[in-house]
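Sequence in, structure out. Go.
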Amino acid sequence: MRRNNSPSGNYRNPCLTMHQPWASLLVYGIKRVEGRSWPAPITGRLWIHAASKVPDESTIKAMEYFYKEIYALNGVTDIQFPQHYPVSRLLGCVEVVGCLTRDELACWEMVPEGVRLEAQTDYCWLCERPQRLLIPFEMRGYQGVYNLERKIYEAAVRGLTPVNSPLPVKFPLPDPRDPFSLKPGCISALTPNLKATEMDGSSSISQAIAGARVAATQFSKKDQNSHGTAQNSMPDRMNANHEDTEVARSYNLRSRGSSMEQDNISSTDLNKKFDDGTSPSYPEGKRSSNKSEGSSKHARYSGAEADLRQYPQPPSKIFAAALKSLKQ
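Output:
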């Protein structure tokens, strides 16, 4: 698989490696904005690959709670989250239709409020028309945007199926005659006086944003030696470390304006949100208690059929430690 580092792009079948659960949330159409610290180098189809890091249960809970809260602002209360979050797999693709700065998207009143609340990073890649692979298949990822191998692309493109998003979004083009008119600076030039909507710092939305920030930044606090899988060679483990560092930087969610007031939320309140098993709620039977002995953790998690939710990690330690660092 050859990476393409040219600044002009020249991508044939561009792919992006992301951590779970963000990768699956994007492919399932729940996540509509991909946040990065650098602008999107492409428009059009972007393949999504899940990195090798197995997500903690607390991370999954925090991000699902975040999306439940922001979708509720637009009247959507029934979200079918993925049953599995497979790792080291090609998951599907989305269409990148443009890229805006955080402030531009946060102020853009032509899109739903929930979408504007996804503006938490320097640059926001606007994604539409998600498609997922019926059978995600194993492959190695790379840092940044890179080209899929031709044989992988030819196999993957035949296995795509459309996704029914909870609230599909069609990002309006500033210039209907130019399909590439959604680029950084275009919205601020048209509406320079718009301001982001202010929120109550004690609201559940603020708590959801706080939880999402903690979930995203916890990658940089993990022991890098824990990354990679049993079958990975040493170069693969080193590559996984690069992936984790890049995605942790890319997902350094930062709330704006009055939403920063959520730092006043006590660790007890936030831990209760994610530890008591009642928020968010999950369909009956979604988490199985079946724990077979004699198999390694990787063997349980690596396959597309593995259920990540069977093996929860105690979320309280992650959230308490992260919240303590935020308050310092």
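Check: Residues 217 and 252 are 6 Å apart (CA to CA). The mean pLDDT is 74.
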